[in-house]
Write the structure tokens for this entry.
Amino acid sequence: QVASNPALQQLLGYTADEMLGMTFADFTHPDDVQRDWELYRELVAGKRKFYAMQKRYIHKDGHTIWANLVVSLVQGERREQDRFAIRMVEDITEQKQMQNALVQAEKLAAAGKLAASFAHEINNPLQSVIGCLGLAEETLMEGGDASCYMRMAREELRRVARIVGELRDLHRQVRLEEREPTDISALVEQILTLSMKKCRDAGIHVVWERAEGLPPLMVVPDRIRQVFLNVLLNAVDAMPEGGDLEIKARRTTDPEGVSISFRDTGIGMSSEAQQHLFTAFYSTKPNGLGLGLYLTKKIVDEHGGHIKVESELGEGTTLTIWLPS
């Protein structure tokens, strides 16, 4: 039976006489009874000197009370006959409520950022579609065949649909069964075709050095294409006055794989910006959402690769992606 002080009686809403006829299980939340009982048995068996836990109690009027509980066993002179447990209960209900309110506020903030990230990630393929339609218009005006640009625009719109699905869960892992032997150079050339008009309009001269004899890599093509497009568009944004973008692919032997570097002559980055470059929702752009490069690194990591950044303010940036073969 329970012997209590006035503080516990006030906390739980029972009188001293009422508590004399009760056990702690009588006013413990049902979900916490088993864990408390297991720890208490270990205490009585001598496996513990004391135990501590957070648990919930039920007030006499029915509302829930959160508490920090510390239980220790007191051994009397006659040992078994004089043993009793001392329970120290600290009311942390208000603290828990504040924590829950903070968690809810953080969830709402994250939801807002996630909603905004849709616009960021979807904007990339939509810009590609705009570029393709512009090229198609120019080609048709010259009497040429624009079907290849229409196919690319359709593929990018399909990618929008896939991105919508992927952004529902930013922590989705790349599944091994989705990977297939892929020509990395072909993926680079696809994103160059998609971004040709954007680069031209921005006054950016692109040099693509394709290496011969690159091994096919086991990757998810659409995810790696997204990586290359994110990196290219970031390079374009870093050259608001125009400039040069040099893209190189080469085979590596130690370890075996392929590296693809994107070197721009843009504004560059400070060392502090480089440290946070791949952090979710961090961006040096006034209207940036900081999700593109976060997802880029996540995808590369999932493929067993890595990203290296070299940059100086006013000197441009080189971003190198390595993927294993």
